[in-house]
Amino acid sequence: xxxxxxxxxxxxxxxxxxxxxxxxxxxxxxxxxxxxxxxxxxxxxxxxxxxxxxxxxxxxxxxxxxxxxxxxxxxxxxxxxxxxxxxxxxxxxxxxxxxxxxxxxxxxxxxxxxxxxxxxxxxxxxxxxxxxxxxxxxxxxxxxxxxxxxxxxxxxxxxxxxxxxxxxxxxxxxxxxxxxxxxxxxxxxxxxxxxxxxxxxxxxxxxxxxxxxxxxxxxxxxxxxxxxxxxxxxxxxxxxxxxx
Amino acid sequence: xxxxxxxxxxxxxxxxxxxxxxxxxxxxxxxxxxxxxxxxxxxxxxxxxxxxxxxxxxxxxxxxxxxxxxxxxxxxxxxxxxxxxxxxxxxxxxxxxxxxxxxxxxxxxxxxxxxxxxxxxxxxxxxxxxxxxxxxxxxxxxxxxxxxxxxxxxxxxxxxxxxxxxxxxxxxxxxxxxxxxxxxxxxxxxxxxxxxxxxxxxxxxxxxxxxxxxxxxxxxxxxxxxxxxxxxxxxxxxxxxxxxxxxxxxxxxxxxxxxxxxxxxxxxxxxxxxxxxxxxxxxxxxxxxxxxxxxxxxxxxxxxxxxxxxxxxxxxxxxxxxxxxxxxxxxxxxxxxxxxxxxxxxxxxxxxxxxxxxxxxxxxxxxxxxxxxxxxxxxxxxxxxxxxxxxxxxxxxxxxxxxxxxxxxxxxxxxxxxxxxxxxxxxxxxxxxx
Lengths: 244, 434
Hints:
The complex is a heterodimer of chains A (244) and B (434). Chain A is α/β, with parallel strands linked by helices and 244 residues long.
């Protein structure tokens, strides 16, 4: 398999790529930080990746997306699976004070994803096979005061993917929406961890099986589906009074 | 957050940070006051415990592997478990492994761990070619047996007190099979056990489970387990699912009666001496790893592990003396393990020396500490020492008597700006830090 991993230095993407590397798949990794990208690429090579290419890109540079997707497809000799995993967990309070920050968060977490998906969807539609897996979040299932900037961006991604799934189904291209819950990664280093927190390799196994089994929406770990079912069912009149 | 080592004693209030990259480590070391690195927390006592700890969880990447020579370079947080699952299917195994695969490369080097093949292959660090070490200044240096050899010999077995190990290169061993040919020899007493070890000195791996509650004529009766890598068989053996101890067990579960019963059953389970069988690599090297969180068996207060080595010159008398005192106390443990070591290496604080080593667990209860103090005195009289990785309670005097190179060790720490930077509960207790 030829796999493109976008946002490859995210802990979830790295853990998922390790599974692909162990199976000898061909990988192309895209991320912003050269030092970390090189370290991950070396690791995946030792783990057995069939071939390995890397591209350094700040994903907010959307004018470069077209060229970079071309470059990746060329390096891999085609793309069978793409995992879109980049994102930032901005500070909600700072975003409330400063719209420029909020816009940047939204750009990273939603618009840059749409830009990539536009290019990838057209390519996959043309080749009429493949899987597009995108990491959204349980935070996109319902707006909450503590993270509604991040949440609304992820919510937008979730809706976008619903539409894209319908559109690409006809061409035999599968779209998977991944919704991780709390994941213990460097991105969430500042949080108190409790029982609900999962490790990246646990989430990676979930992503892997969602792709293999052609799931449409995968909550990882699975119990988040139940938690979010409950949270979504709370009426707004009550929700607005909660500190949740 | 309250944390402890594997023995769950002592517990202290700590803050752990998990750096995501080497440069992040460097920055944190520069700005930190005093700190100690921590891997998977499998040392038993306070070796990796301090108010400020740097966890190596995210430093878990391979760097390079040479398919010809088997030289593997990886970051310090890579676990032996990872290495086993990546490389055994390709026909490579660890040159030396302790009884658990849930330790990191950094931890294995800092403890200079040993395995069942010490009499043939030495310690873990005897197979390490190179270490990248982050000094107290924030600078990263490469140390090898030839480059800064003083720092290399202090870092191997140095309990993380010379700097933070960032990455290392070690030579893996070629294997043809994921299976082991195992032979179990049943011995009726300690003399026979030591003789059996002697006769089996050609075996690649050897270790004895010893019934430390047996007394009188049966003192030191054992099951000596020998192993060789099989020449054929699948390389893809996976560890079994295993079971997990879900919570702390009532500490009364392990009392002299149940332990005695367990030991007697275990010894008598093997009917014929010389029994041969083929077992998986996992069950041969890592039997306890299939019992996750087995440390909870000892209850909320935890346990201490006591592992000592006596020089060969102290002979049968020394080991008999220790065993008599232990069996007399009635506080023996589930699994007491005896092993004959080969010669010592040059590392300043490495534990193994040519002689006999015995490891046992004791549930934490007030009477245990005075018993252990008494055992320390007998052990020192015979010229022995205790394994720092297992230790949570020995005195400064006991440590300094067993490890006369401690002063050289501290001199090297001073030379490389480590002494006021890398500090653990243990280094303070043992007088390596004030």
